[in-house]
Design brief:
This protein has two domains: 1-38, no CATH class; 49-132, Beta Barrel (OB fold (Dihydrolipoamide Acetyltransferase, E2P)), CATH 2.40.50.140. It has two helices and five strands. It has 133 residues and is α+β, with helices and mostly antiparallel strands.
Length: 133
């Protein structure tokens, strides 16, 4: 991890004119690190397909990462979103996912994605973020 420290000397004051350039430098160095730890990285917990199929309500509110291939668009409503069927890459199981229109995603059958999903009430698999593999 990158750490930037500045030691104050007796002749150095923390005036805004001296502080601003250092802050900008620190922000420029720290921003890429924050970017690398957010989004659809591989750090999320893999979606437990078998546990979901056995008892989806036990996973309500949990967040997971699912790598899957789009199998079919089941339904779409303008301003609401679309329901798609995907095949998981690990288990080759077909699952339904809901993707809100607010994600503005262009999806095609056979494309592979890493989905960040939340299990909602009734077992709805709600896509929070997605990234093409």
């Amino acid at each position: 991890m990158l750490a930037v420290t500045f030691a104050a000397t007796p002749s150095m004051s923390l005036s805004p004119m001296r502080f601003a350039p250092r802050f900008v430098l620190f922000a420029a160095l720290a921003a890429p690190l924050l970017f690398l730890t957010s989004g659809c990285g591989r750090s999320g917990e893999p979606f437990p397909v078998r546990s979901f199929l056995a008892a989806p309500d036990n996973l309500q509110g949990n967040r997971y990462v699912l790598e899957a291939e789009i199998d079919q668009q089941i339904n779409w409503r303008e301003g609401i979103g679309r329901l798609i069927a995907v095949r998981t890459l690990r288990d080759d199981v077909r699952l339904p996912l809901f993707i809100s229109d607010s994600l503005k995603a262009n999806l095609l059958v056979a494309q592979r994605y890493r989905f960040e999903i939340t299990v909602r009430k009734g077992g709805l698999l709600y896509v929070e973020r997605l990234k093409k593999l």
